[in-house]
Amino acid sequence: xxxxxxxxxxxxxxxxxxxxxxxxxxxxxxxxxxxxxxxxxxxxxxxxxxxxxxxxxxxxxxxxxxxxxxxxxxxxxxxxxxxxxxxxxxxxxxxxxxxxxxxxxxxxxxxxxxxxxxxxxxxxxxxxxxxxxxxxxxxxxxxxxxxxxxxxxxxxxxxxxxxxxxxxxxxxxxxxxxxxxxxxxxxxxxxxxxxxxxxxxxxxxxxxxxxxxxxxxxxxxxxxxxxxxxxxxxxxxxxxxxxxxxxxxxxxxxxxxxxxxxxxxxxxxxxxxxxxxxxxxxxxxxxxxxxxxxxxxxxxxxxxxxxxxxxxxxxxxxxxxxxxxxxxxxxxxxxxxxxxxxxxxxxxxxxxxxxxxxxxxxxxxxxxxxxxxxxxxxxxxxxxxxxxxxxxxxxxxxxxxxxxxxxxxxxxxxxxxxxxxxxxxxxxxxxxxxxx
Length: 436
Ligand SMILES: Cc1cc2nc3c(=O)[nH]c(=O)nc-3n(C[C@H](O)[C@H](O)[C@H](O)COP(=O)(O)O)c2cc1C
Fold this sequence. Notes:
With about 425 residues, the chain is an alpha/beta fold. It has one domain: TIM Barrel. Helices cover about 40% and strands about 15% of the residues. The relative contact order is 0.16. Flavin mononucleotide binds near residues 133, 134 and 222.
């Protein structure tokens, strides 16, 4: 099936209050306290909905996000995503509401309960980005002396998702009779008890939230390692990924499809969405100066600490900033992103400084600097080549780059026939999977 048979999917990745560029909080047009401002988020959610974007996505880690320890990182405080999305559900009607929840630092019961509640509150618009958490500093917040190893985290994740799926079946619609005349509220024979004993997790109990409009939230997975792809192929409906080239995204998509067939699922059972950060303006010159202005706002200490973080916690202090990336020892953190960064550094002979400048612009996702038409062309090229089913839009600054995407780029995509002109019907899952 060619991607033309269905519309491009675009979600608004709206974490970090002021934008995806690491220095966005210093930009004169961003609200410096945006990460804690519900009115700012409500206005952005409504803007995304005006542009018919498919969902809002809030990534998360249960720890301080980018802490350079010296005070230059602007992403150290924010709102808990499910709480924030519940509030946004009340000021929107159609857009999907997707949040990350960690399978390493949560209990399946709490996560199942939160997403079932969000799905009720939003009338079928909830999505769960299942992650094992890449930041090792989360461990201390949960009384652990170390971040569990990569494979163990995925073993736990496999069991976690399985338990959550069982819990979501506790109260099927037909179990809740609610008959005022007979006085019978539920049918005890239809209520389903969960009994799970795994290697890492066990649960014997029941959820206290009724079956939600989607039955369970849309399941998204965003790890790109072999274990991540395996988890996705078994359980996910959407994959978020960082890809910098059409060819690598096509390879990635092929790997996912092979794994899907291994689990007996059809090749189009998963929607693949790479991130993209457009630095767009009316003219190329304006777009370039927007990009350069933001790059100049990155403090070198912040750039270096972000790079260390993306490399899985490897500290590069003491290395020559204008020298090459050294050979790095193995890491327990984010393996796929690190491989991507190492490859980029070697292929393009980038120095450490050039590398962090490149990465802080989009954190290993595609960054496009160009006119609105040029950005639209890039999106269409990726989409039509089969490299992806759509994108996770990562505006460099909020709210302006989100507004201009909705006002300037969406109409071009609509004109070119790749983007919808109205929301589809039904809950989030059916919107993403219905044909044009
Ligand atoms: C678009 C996107 C969003 C992501 N969001 C999160 C997130 O919110 N929290 C997190 O810990 N990791 C997030 N990740 C990273 C992966 O989930 C992370 O790499 C995972 O912890 C282990 O990955 P691996 O399977 O690639 O080794 C995200 C990745 C992508 C591409």
